[in-house]
Write a structure and sequence with these properties.
The structure holds two protein chains of two kinds. By secondary structure, chain A is an all-alpha fold. Chain A has 13 helices and no strands. Chain A starts with a helix and ends with a helix. By secondary structure, chain B is mainly alpha-helical. Chain B has a single domain, classed as MetI-like (MetI-like fold, Orthogonal Bundle), CATH 1.10.3720.10. Chain B has helices at 2-7, 11-14, 18-32, 35-52, 54-57, 90-126, 128-141, 146-157, 161-188, 191-198, 203-240, 251-258, 266-293. The chains are: A mainly alpha, B mainly alpha.
């Protein structure tokens, strides 16, 4: 079977397993999933009526089957806290999270490639040691703390940039205007630190590896200019760097919860955080399901693209 | 284990221990010549000692509140690192906080090291369908970014230290199991294992005598590199309100509660995060040093 078909088919069992995990989450949690919907002292007729409405009175396998069928049609149920559609809530939050994570990825990728290439070219130099130190620091820093530091410097002390929210007012709409962009700057920089460190490390290693290859010597011996050699380096580094970045984008989408909490950024992380503290299990379940499936799909795309760029993978 | 003893009676007593000691001796020799790793190790040692002797080192109680001395800045007489929103001495809370913060950061990796290695070694050693089955289940956990998985589990189980420890352990088992599995699979096909099998050694004996020693080293190095992430995530869960509960001194939770006063007393707010960062970066540097000293990958 071709690599591509195999890789695509592999997504089906993984997605089902992810669904099973998200479904089980509700039953893992202590107390009745009904607790958030009806108050503890409600009469038993009311409890039973709501149970029937939510389908909690049926056997578990049946509940799972119904849940999957509805999820496939884009129906993730209703929020236990405010009765709104979970799917609507999750997707409008996902839009904000994507905005934040794509911005962070672009910053992290650009800086990471720049630093990594410089360090790889001048291995062992002071610059290399500085960059390597920066990379270790950037993967060791608690990013929620970095966010607080940036707030202190740029919001509290200098009063240049806002410390919370996604824009003026609370409409939730976003526009490419300075009034909105300035809200994006601090959270995006905070979140960009993790991919920056990882991309730097990867690019540095690959650049050093490529430069140590015999073909580079051969190119130089042939009298090719530095820019031509650099082109070959880019060609060899690009697939790996892109793969790391693609996966990182997925990690950021799942991992932005802490940064979103620091900056009150109205994305999936904040939604999840609120859902946890209101014991709003349908929202918790739906958000995690959507994020995990997004991550699985992103992994698929990265793998397929990488195989396309680097034919060695298909054979391996 | 008892089985192993019966298969090779007396072997444990007669086997010279020296070569094993020699290996760790040479690792230590190389590590000692790595200045970065040594500095990181010394800083960590100091923080661990600080955690152990917290009650004697801390100038004040980490719990005693005072409305009169709320939100004092760094350098206030009597409160060298200022006070928090309830007037508690931040220096004392940082010193006491080391205990819980280190524990919840390191424990998940220790747990996952034992459980993950076991799963990985069994999968790698048995091979075939069992391997495929185990590794496919492990793969499912890769469908979740680490932070999301930790928050999802801790959030569903409800806040609390035990739940946050459990969630992080689950997060770290799959990557450790994967490394253990891949190393075991490589080791399994090595000639001396074939020889041991040919000479009639049972599976448990082979695992005990030949596989463990070769697999646990690389897995251990890998696990140490996870401690840094674990520290950040464990304190992160507390920061979200899913781990330690007030008034317990814990660095992530301190960041959370002092965050409300960020406009009033900004630089005191920073301190618990600085502690997390220090521990995390030291573990990373020590792990890098260990990796090159043990010559793994």
């Amino acid at each position: 079977m071709s690599y591509f078909l195999k890789r695509i088919l592999y997504v089906i069992p993984v997605t089902l397993a992810v669904g099973l995990f998200c479904f089980s989450l509700v039953h893992l949690s202590p107390g009745d999933p009904m607790d958030a919907v009806v108050s503890a002292d409600a009469p038993s007729e009311v409890v039973q009526m709501v149970q029937r409405a939510y389908g909690f009175d049926r056997p578990l396998p049946e509940q799972f089957g119904r849940w999957v069928l509805r999820a496939v049609q884009g129906d993730l149920g209703l929020s236990a806290a405010n009765g709104r559609s979970v799917a609507t809530e999750v997707f409008s939050a996902l839009k904000n999270t994507l905005l934040l994570t794509v911005a962070a990825s672009l910053i992290g990728f650009t800086l990471g490639c720049l630093f990594g290439t410089l360090a790889g070219y001048w291995q062992g130099s002071l610059l290399d040691r500085l960059v390597t130190g920066l990379a270790v620091g950037s993967v060791s820093i608690p990013h929620y703390w970095l966010g607080m530091l940036l707030v202190i410097v740029f919001s509290v002390e200098l009063n240049w940039l806002p410390s919370s929210g996604a824009g003026p007012g609370s409409s939730g709409d976003w526009a490419f205007e300075w009034a909105y962009l300035r809200h994006l700057i601090l959270p995006a920089i905070t979140l960009s630190v993790i991919p920056m460190g990882l991309v730097t490390r990867t690019v540095r290693a690959v650049v050093a590896e490529v430069l140590a290859n015999e073909f580079v010597e051969a190119l130089r011996a042939k009298g090719l200019a530095g820019t031509r050699v650099f082109l070959h380096v880019v060609k060899n580094v690009a697939p790996t760097a892109l793969a790391v970045m693609g996966l990182e984008l997925g990690y950021l989408i799942g991992g932005s919860i802490l940064v979103e909490t620091v900056f009150s950024w109205p994305g999936t992380g904040l939604l999840l955080n609120n859902a946890i503290f209101q014991r709003d299990l349908p929202v918790l379940q739906g958000t995690i399901l959507v994020l995990a499936i997004f991550f699985v799909m992103l992994n698929l795309i990265v793998d397929l693209l990488q195989a396309q760029l680097d034919p060695r993978i298909k054979r391996g | 284990m008892a089985d192993t003893m019966q298969v090779t009676p007396g072997a444990a007593g007669t086997l010279p221990v020296a070569p094993v000691k020699g290996y760790w001796h040479s690792v230590w020799g190389r590590l000692r010549r790595d200045p970065v790793a040594m500095v990181a190790g010394l800083v960590l040692l100091a923080i661990v000692l600080m955690a152990i002797f917290a009650p004697w080192l801390a100038p004040a109680s980490p719990y005693s509140t005072s409305m009169l001395t709320r939100l004092q800045p760094i350098g206030t007489p009597g409160f060298p690192l200022g006070t928090d929103e309830l007037g508690r001495d931040v220096l004392s809370r940082l010193i006491h906080g080391a205990r819980l913060s280190l524990l919840i950061g390191v424990m998940p990796v220790v747990n996952a090291f034992f459980i993950g290695s076991m799963i990985g070694i069994v999968a790698g050693f048995v091979g075939g369908r069992t391997n495929t089955a185990i590794m496919r289940v492990i793969d499912v956990f890769y469908a979740f970014p680490a932070v999301l998985l930790a928050v999802a589990l801790a959030g569903a189980l409800g806040s609390g230290l035990v739940n946050s420890l459990f969630s992080l352990t689950v997060v770290f088992i799959p990557p450790i199991a994967r490394v253990a599995e891949s190393v075991t699979t490589k080791v399994r096909s090595v000639d001396y294992i074939e020889a041991a099998r040919a000479s009639g050694a049972g599976s448990l004996t082979i695992i005990h005598r030949h596989v463990l020693g070769n697999v646990l080293g690389p897995v251990f190095v890998y696990a140490t590199s996870l401690i840094s992430v674990s520290m950040i995530l464990a304190s992160g869960l507390s920061f979200l309100g899913l781990g330690a509960r007030p008034p317990t001194p814990e660095w992530g939770l301190m960041l959370n509660t002092m965050r409300d006063a960020i406009y009033v007393n900004p630089w005191v707010t920073v301190l618990p995060g600085l502690m997390i960062f220090t521990v995390s970066i030291c573990f990373n540097m020590l792990s890098d040093g260990l990796r090159s000293a043990m010559d793994v990958k």
